[in-house]
Specification:
Helices cover 50% and strands 16% of the residues. It has helices at 11-19, 21-29, 38-54, 63-77, 81-86, 90-110, 162-183, 208-231, 261-273, and strands at residues 8-9, 118-129, 132-143, 149-155, 189-194, 200-204. Strands 1, 2, 3, 4, 5 and 6 form a six-stranded mixed sheet that branches.
């Protein structure tokens, strides 16, 4: 019996399949829950604070206002299950908020928030590519002085190495393709704004060649996903990423049994329901 095909692909799912097909299966097909992490939830907080800031008129986007929006976003986060599951003590929670504050300081060091007016914030876009649907969330969409689209994606981790940067820019083309399909217009540029240590902005200019390259790459990955589902053959790929993988319990590379994953998910769901 073949595995069911996922209905959509996102930049993160494409990246997961490239990194490890078995991790893709656990995430996209078995839909195993992944535990929250401090970096991921902190990124959620910073994204929300920036969203609130950019929703105000440009003159109101001051550093003091950003602090107020961060406080509001932090209050919202207190009841979020992902944040609650971190179970931070008072000292860790204080450090968590201090790190987010530092990221906002870095933002103001690399961009003037009054210099643009967004036409969309946290936009979920979806479009078909053959029998597949691609989807992704754009952090910020705006028009430049020439009326051209500009996509901005915030990154709260470290600036990637040169090799990793090429992988990140693959996601850039993903966003550019979505904009072209949904709005009928290709962005003039897509910028990755890194707010971690050594903050900087990496800018890419989508082209006919890069967009067509994305379509070919995604089509090839989707064909590989289809074959893996049909043959029930998702193989693990060991790398340094295994150190942060939450699926080790079911991975044969760590002595686990992948066939136990669906049963574990079903048991967890029954426990919640009861």
């Amino acid at each position: 019996m073949a595995f069911p095909l996922p209905s959509t692909l996102s930049p993160s799912k494409v990246s997961t399949f490239k990194d490890c097909a078995l991790a893709f299966r656990f995430s996209a097909i078995d839909k195993l829950p992944e535990p929250s992490s401090v970096p991921a939830v902190k990124g959620t907080l910073v994204h929300r604070a920036l969203e609130l800031l950019f929703a105000t008129p440009p003159p109101a986007r001051t550093r003091d206002a950003a602090a107020e929006h961060l406080a509001a976003a932090s209050t919202e986060l207190q009841t979020d299950p992902e944040f609650v599951s971190l179970d931070l003590d008072s000292e860790a929670a204080e450090a968590f908020l201090a790190d987010a504050t530092t990221m906002l300081d870095r933002y103001f060091a690399i961009e003037d928030p009054t210099s643009f007016d967004p036409v969309g914030l946290e936009l979920m876009l979806e479009a078909p590519l053959g029998d597949l649907r691609l989807r992704g969330i754009i952090d910020r969409l705006e028009l430049d002085a020439d009326g051209e689209l500009v996509v901005t994606d915030y990154k709260t981790g470290r600036v990637p190495s040169q090799q990793q940067e090429l992988s990140r820019l693959g996601g850039v083309q993903f966003y550019a393709w979505l904009c072209e399909q949904v709005f009928g217009k290709r962005p003039a540029r897509v910028q990755l704004m890194y707010l971690g240590p050594n903050p900087q902005v990496i800018i890419a200019t989508p082209t006919d060649q890069s967009i067509r390259g994305l379509e070919r790459k995604v089509a090839a990955i989707w064909n590989a996903v289809e074959r893996a589902c049909e043959r029930e053959d998702f193989r693990p790929r060991q790398s340094h990423l295994c150190n942060w993988c939450s699926f080790q319990e079911y991975c044969p590379a760590f002595g686990g049994d992948p066939s136990l994953a669906p049963a574990a998910l079903h048991a967890a769901a029954e426990a919640v329901a009861s």
